[in-house]
What does this fold into?
Amino acid sequence: MADSHNANGIFPPASGASLRLKVGLAEMLKGGVIMDVMNVEQARIAEEAGAVSVMALERVPAMIRAEGGVARMANPKLIREIIDTVSIPVMAKARIGHFAEAQILQELGVDFIDESEVLTPADEAHHIDKHAFKTPFVCGARNLGEALRRIAEGAAMIRTKGEAGTGDVVHAVQHMRQIVREMKALTVLSEQELYAAAKEHQAPYELVRMVAQAGKLPVPNFSAGGIATPADAALMMQLGAEAIFVGSGIFMKERATPLDVEKNPREREEAMSRAKAIVIATTHFNDPKILAEVSEQVTGTMKGLSAAAIEESQLLQTRGW
Amino acid sequence: MKKSEAGPNESPRVGVLAIQGDYDAHAQALREAGAEPVLIRKPEQLAEIDGLIIPGGESTTFLKSLERDGFLGALREFVQTKPTFGTCAGCILLATEVTHPPQTSLGALNVAVERNAYGRQIDSSIHTAATALPGSPLEMVYIRAPRIVKTGEGVKVLAERDGFPVLVEQGHILAATFHPELSQDRRVHRRFVDLVRARLTRP
It folds into this structure.
């Protein structure tokens, strides 16, 4: 199976109950869509559309990009309201290196913490020591070395960074292709060559060896960053993603203006149509007939911003080390 | 479409509902337990299999997808007669009654299930406990697990946690609130594959 990931093969019982439970929840989210939501009504729409999880945040990446300023963890009150609203797992973002924000999120009962480059980094050298938490973490990566460094720190799920808030899938594609290509390349190396490979990837030798043997990451590998349409979701799944994060793609109208899902029934319906279509497309990513059908049902798409037009210094994906 | 033709000595073809969830882990467990896994994403595929596993994942997401193309109706019919094994979200789907919050189900297993009853991810845990299966106590991985709060007629309890059933069997239906597919012990999957085989040999 192209979309196969053996939950049991790589992290055996010896690796500890905590890590197995963290990766276990990531396993349950596979084949699903995790949607960014900014209020209770959006969370309701996401759950009703079939999202496997919601990411609670105050501003989606498109708004952060348009409005600027320091982007921080969402207000705990908002997170609590969303937790009380939906029955599916709730994720929330902490700034890179901001372990105090992560402690607060764990205390709130958040099910997964995203140590995210979308927020303004709090530490320019160190990511959070994720082993110190009971709550699982997801982290972004642009290449295999970055993914393995995050796993070494305790991440239980990796996602491509892509370029968040653009609606342009090009960088998610680039990152997924690079991670998959680098994993394939490891599988043909001899045992002796793996030491130098670990040095090249700036990643722990033990993890490099695991990937060389299994041909895949030891944790689920999801995709995020610019996915805006059912076709985008299907593309990432066919490239090897095991699930999809959608940020600004569902609830945004213009780049800095969300659809009014609370007061405008037509705009609520538009958000619902996008959300439903992306969920179905993620399950049936290999079935063009169904993809055509669900794409047809979508009314309107986020306007988007070409990632190539963004200045290097304005990219979110270069945050994290 | 090819009908399943597995004889008593061949590997039975067992479907794994692959809308979403840990279907790959189940497929691997089935291979280790001597069955041939088939990922099921469309109602017409149900004709190709001798039994079905409904995996862990989000039961709300499963239901959304099943509401398309008459899948829910086809599946309801399938689970009335064909061996089916549900874990976690799969157990919720098989139950006759679901609470917290209430939602529709397949109604094949005579139990009431409360969703997320053991708490959030922070409360997920691994236990080892005695079961009615032969051999030593069994490792049980619970992830945001549901609780079987009531069992009705014909339901055999094979294991419990704090006095509540966690592994139950009712004729051709097997269900667990934990995730045997995330452990290395294959006794639960073997029991299900045996159940599928037993139905194959029946005249």
Notes: The radius of gyration of chain B is 16 Å. Residues 54 and 90 of chain B are 5 Å apart (CA to CA). The first strand of chain B starts at residue 13 and ends at 17.
